């Protein structure tokens, strides 16, 4: 490029802002101006690191121009499989030096996949990450002892956190101390959204912490011990709840009676805790399968409820869930043709004739070979609903049913 480009500088920079990472790297090699300004564009985008060579190159990139690029980095994803801690790698020491010697004042979003492996590669790397002060969003895991230790000293005021636990950590000695509501006390005044994967240990009621006054959204994924008491107590202001438990895909004709007894026990415990703590009285959105929602034992008003009805889910559970809550809009996802038998949806809607339901969105997905010949409207009492939408997928002729 000549010293007097044909296009104005601001137009060149606007064009560069739309370039891919590879193209932008090439553009940066054309002149000093674009080398400097192109780097700004690059670090203001999400930066994704997937392998060690890219990680090494990125650390060198940050060190250029007197590490001024560290000041502009905003969103970083590190998803790298590192060698065993005993094997030297070219990443850990340079990363530690950057973290402790330079300021990342614009870094608000960080994702650390394989966080435990990364932190194990350098004895002081956790302290380096703990110095970050501007993070508002963090995705981290699978979390072991080093990751949880980092969370207790991280200096940022996190608002959004996704925390994935290392398998088996909840079975270790003192596992109750690793419960999210205990580990995350550092962010008690700032946390608004929490997504937890894989933590299944119960928490001693005597250790229940102070409440998180700004928590609005809670996602629980695959707890094997779905006792909700710690969350019911610690997150009184939750408005959006999604729960996925081991029971979501575990019910079969062979175990449904045995598992139902266990689910009933969890349901009674959760209902008792909601009554004891007096929280979760008004939710905006709730999502889960029938067993998940049944064992949660919710007794409150819900603006929008998303319920998945799988093949072997008992419709008595569907009815129990809907009887215990006051739902305005129900999105019901049905994956079995048995839903339209007399003891399925007809039974549910007849029993709910005087419910609080304003709108029903019924999504039916059947196998290609299945056909439903009867009028689909017969399963719903239209006088009890303000509006009804049917989104039906599969080999079904609805031309005379709509």
Notes on the protein architecture:
This protein has helices spanning 9-16, 21-28, 32-44, 52-63, 92-101, 115-120, 125-130, 145-153, 180-183, 229-234, 256-277, 290-296, 315-324, 345-351; strands at 46-49, 75-78, 109-113, 137-143, 160-165, 193-197, 217-221, 240-244, 282-289, 301-309, 326-334, 359-365, 387-393. The protein is of the alpha/beta class and 402 residues long. It has a 13-stranded parallel beta sheet with strand order 1-2-3-4-5-6-7-8-9-10-11-12-13. Helix 13 runs parallel beside helix 14. The longest helix is centred in the middle third of the chain and has 22 residues, at 256-277. Residues 380-402 have low confidence and may be disordered.
Question: Could you give a short description of this structure?
Answer:
With 402 residues, the protein is α/β, with parallel strands linked by helices.
Keywords:
elongated; 402 residues; 32% helix; 13-stranded parallel β-sheet; disordered C terminus; alpha/beta
Which regions have little confidence, pLDDT < 50, spanning 5+ residues?
Answer: 380-402
Helix content range: 25-40%
Most strands sheet = 13 strands, parallel
Strand adjacency order, main sheet: 1-2-3-4-5-6-7-8-9-10-11-12-13
Give the helix/strand class: alpha/beta
What is the CA-CA span between the terminal residues?
65 Å
Radius of gyration from the alpha-carbon trace, in angstroms:
26 Å
Rounded mean pLDDT score: 84
The gross shape turns out to be elongated
Number of helices: 14
Topology of this protein?
Elements lengths: L8 H8 L4 H8 L3 H13 L1 E4 L2 H12 L11 E4 L13 H10 L7 E5 L1 H6 L4 H6 L6 E7 L1 H9 L6 E6 L14 H4 L9 E5 L19 E5 L7 H6 L5 E5 L11 H22 L4 E8 H7 L4 E9 L5 H10 L1 E9 L10 H7 L7 E7 L21 E7 L9
Parallel strand pairs: 1-2, 2-3, 3-4, 4-5, 5-6, 6-7, 7-8, 8-9, 9-10, 10-11, 11-12, 12-13
Helix pairs in contact: 2-3, 11-12, 12-13, 13-14
